[in-house]
Amino acid sequence: MHAWICHNPTGTDALQWEEVPTPEPGAGQARVAVKASSLNFPDILICQNKYQFKPTPPFVPGSEYAGVVEAVGDGVANVKPGDRVMVIGGTGGFGTHAVVPAEKLVPMPAGMSFEHGAAFLMTYGTTQHALLDRGQLKAGETVLVLGAAGGVGTAAVQIAKAAGARVIAAASTDAKCALCKEIGADATINYSTENIRDALKALTGGKGPDVVYDPVGGDLAEPVFRSIAWRGRYLVVGFAGGGIPALPLNLSLLKGAAIVGVFWGDFVRREPQAFQRDLQQLAQWYAEGKVTPVMDKTMPLADLHAAYARMGARQVVGKLVLLQP
Question: Tens digit of pLDDT for each residue in 96-120?
Fold first, then answer.
């Protein structure tokens, strides 16, 4: 097999394409022939040793992928060779094959392409857990989605609409705002050219959003939190903006508002039954056309460095998926 290997997590430029022995699955494991892998912001951080999950080098990055089960080890009953699966791997996606614990494999819904399979599980799983579980979003409430044109952002727009909410999508360009309107956002804010507090006040009649979905962090966090509604829920999803904000806690007191952490990976590990219920709902929404991954573009796996550069330059709209030759 071939894979992009990280020997030293000093950055994505250090990844090397190498030929390595194709591994055999051990007890409780399965080997997957990878067909498509998506690129997520944590995949950049992992290669910089800046993510909360720090694999031991050498490792193959790539946290989200889809493929076909080739072989299974002893004791594996949930999948068999030939099954089409999505993988919650943490690592392994940027190679031609991956051996993972069989419990991390999720059957692909009927009719789903490998490209969608590689772009679905992490973004939609994270977002459903964030909005409906951690945020307790109710029909008729208003959601502000920051970074709304990205992978998790587009998922948040779609899931919030499926849940019956009003969606305000905030993004950094007019083109990204237009995309958000196309996939269902009720209103948009270009935070590069508009004052986000003034825009939120106008769009909510001074009330503010009930739920804020924030995968961005950075300088936007405080002005947005100052605009949140009474009993609002501020969902801390990630820090794609680069900085981890320090919010004045008196704002939480004055607004009666909650700052809510979202760690989907640990949710999957700690609450597997709840995760399975979420999967059933997502599969139903996908079949109904209520949620569909927004595809930025597909690229050959050999172009991983160019894909990283595109994401690092914030050019990705929706999901960027890497395909095997």
Answer: 999 999 999 999 998 999 999 999 9
Q: Into how many domains does the chain fold?
A: 2
Q: Are residues 49 and 127 in the same domain?
A: no
285 found inside a domain: no
Q: How far apart are CA 167 and CA 319, in angstroms?
A: 20
Q: How large is the greatest C-alpha to C-alpha distance in the chain, in angstroms?
A: 61
User: What digits encode the pLDDT tens for the residues 55-86?
Assistant: 999 999 999 999 999 999 999 999 999 999 99
Structural domain that includes position 182: 123-264
